[in-house]
Design a protein that fits this description.
The chain is an alpha/beta fold and 304 residues long. The protein has 10 helices and 14 strands. The protein has a single domain, classed as Ribokinase (UDP-N-acetylmuramoyl-L-alanine:D-glutamate ligase), CATH 3.40.1190. The chain is globular and about 50 Å long. The structure holds alpha-D-ribofuranose.
């Protein structure tokens, strides 16, 4: 089986659920509080591992109780964390997440994640190069990603970059990435363009994969722009749905599936992930996802 490396953030998420987001200067009473492991990197690693991927996580945590909880959870999820860096100068990353009627607002304080820089990458480079597919997001320093991606490109590795939170990327970096997965709100900033989605997709066929929430996922296959529909579900909490999509996409690609099928697989996984509160709680296992897809297909067949 091909090996997947995720280079990215690990956070402890603190969720506050409320019936109404507070306005500036306002206090509202919340209805639930819980903590859950998060960070776009850790979320994508867990999504991929639950779906049967062989996954290693690269990144940095602090030397504090959250770090221990996170490392134990990653091991429980069968993820290789032997190259994770523990730093004493910073706290483990945290995210403060308000959820209200399946919408969310997130503030991330990166802490230790900012130590996933070039010197760390140099220390873990040999082990990273043993992987076939490497997944990044933008909650760790961009300069380290810009440093590593050309080395992966030289060795013909597949690279997925989920550009969130959005930052402008250089054309040189974009050229060396195999798949770029912004959402419909991020793609303009990431590409540095102000043009309709169809134009952007046409420029990056089989590379630019734009996630559009309930509208599905759009990419250009070299002939036409294709929309892969989202699965219709009653969302409880959409936190981590994009991460589930990316983790699932990585697994399907690592199994050698074509891009279109891999996107459908990612859409199904993301659809299931929003049925529970928390970024990782609803991420499906392979068995759950296969059953869900089978159920949806028989439902479709019944409709014909
Ligand atoms: O994508 C969701 C994630 O964004 C959360 O888990 C939070 O930690 C932030 O990184």
């Amino acid at each position: 089986m091909k090996k997947i490396a995720v280079v990215g953030s690990l956070n402890m998420d603190y969720f506050a659920e409320t019936n109404q987001f507070p306005a500036a200067g306002e206090t509202v009473l919340g209805k639930d509080f819980f903590m859950s492991l998060g960070g776009k990197g850790a979320n994508q690693a867990i999504a991929a591992s639950r779906l049967g991927g062989r996954v290693s996580m690269y990144g940095s945590v602090g030397n504090d109780p959250n770090s221990t909880l996170i490392r134990n959870k990653m091991k429980e999820e069968q993820i290789d964390i032997s190259h994770l860096q523990i730093v004493s100068e910073s706290h483990t990353g945290v995210a403060l997440i308000e959820i209200c009627q399946s919408e969310n607002r997130i503030v991330v304080i990166p802490g230790a994640n900012l130590h996933t820089g070039i010197s760390y990458i140099n220390r873990v480079l040999d082990s990273l190069l043993e992987h076939d597919l490497v997944v990044f997001q933008l909650e760790t320093p961009l300069e380290a990603i810009e440093y590593l991606v050309p080395k992966l490109y030289e060795k013909n590795k597949q690279v997925i970059l989920n550009p969130a939170p959005a930052q402008r990327l250089s054309p040189e970096l974009i050229q060396k990435i195999t798949y770029l997965t912004p959402n419909e709100h991020e793609y303009r900033q990431v590409l540095g363009v102000d043009e309709p989605m169809e134009h952007a997709l046409l420029k990056y066929p089989n590379k630019l994969v734009i996630t559009c929430g309930q509208k599905g996922v759009i990419f250009h296959d070299g002939g036409a722009a294709l929309t892969i529909p989202a699965f219709k579900v009653e969302a409880v909490d959409t936190t981590g749905a994009g991460d589930t999509f990316c983790g699932a996409l990585a697994v399907a690609l690592s199994e050698g599936r074509p891009l279109k099928d891999s996107i459908s697989f990612g859409c199904a996984a993301a659809g299931l992930s929003v049925l529970k509160k928390g970024a990782q709680t609803g991420m499906p296992t392979r068995r759950e996802l296969d059953q869900f897809i089978k159920g949806e297909l028989s439902h479709e067949a019944g409709n014909i």
